Amino acid sequence: LLVKSPTTATTAPPTPSPTLAEHVREGLRKTFKTLSSMYFYDDEGSRLFQEIMALPEYYPTRTEYGLLLEHAAAICDALRPATGEPFYLLELGAGDGLKTKILLRHLLDTGAHFTYVPVDISTAALDGLSATLQAELPGLAVEPVVADYADALTLMASRPGRKAVLFLGSNIGNFLPNERQAFLRRLRQPLTSDDRLLIGFDLQKDPRRIRAAYDDTQGITAEFNLNLLRRLNRELAADFDLASWQHYTDYDPLTGAVRSFLVSTKAQTVHLAAISETVEFAAWEMIHTENSYKFTRSLIDALAADAGFTMQGFFTDAQDFFSDVILM
Ligand code: AVJ
What is the C-alpha separation between 240 and 6, in angstroms, rounded? Predict the structure, then answer.
């Protein structure tokens, strides 16, 4: 756990990932093979995700951006304390900060005194964000925290004042239902009734539109998914032949789950030298790589209630594609 002062630069440590090795071994030994979507985001994967966000089919990012612009005043009013108590705006998984800057700007413009605390497990991501913020919003107090989300919240809980926690971008959709429930309950624990939580949820809509967002015509999402195999080739000395794998996505309107897979187009054997694993794939066998759940208002209400939160605000765009929800 590392809390940095606003101006310190950090050098990124070499990234040893014993967890990658363990997760991959475990996932590829299952009857229905899996790899975790958290490993999409190496440098190339992060670059591809930036491209995904600019795709015509990928509506979530620009929709949430628009809804934050439209409702910035109301959202900031719900997040900021009415009294002069200290105010911390914590962000879990800060990304490029484009959407967050809407809220930061509004708060600064309306005279709020607060500290922005971006939380991420990647030092490199936080360094990049801190540098751009320092340049673009020079008056902003930034205190990055390199930590696991729950650890960061526990750490900040010991400070007096309002904590407003941001979890934007429908990242909550990556959790399976039971994991999602556990995650929200865990977030609730260190928070008090004075604190606030803002979460982005992608909403259920025309199923064709949802499916298209995860299977774009330019094949960028396919590249993003296949990049996971490239990463295993590099980091685990594996020999996945990318020409024998395809990207496949389905959307199940009954559960609200978009599921992404890598499909083995022939019977093949893959070696992962760094973890001494040999894995057999049958023709058309799948590796499940990602869940992106889509929600309804009633699902969100139930989820909030289960974790012990009260709904303070429910903001959507004009088409009801996406929602940003304030819980307390
Ligand atoms: C970053 C998890 C919100 O699930 O929509 C985009 C990741 N995967 N296209 C999502 C993603 C394929 C994205 N999240």
Answer: 43
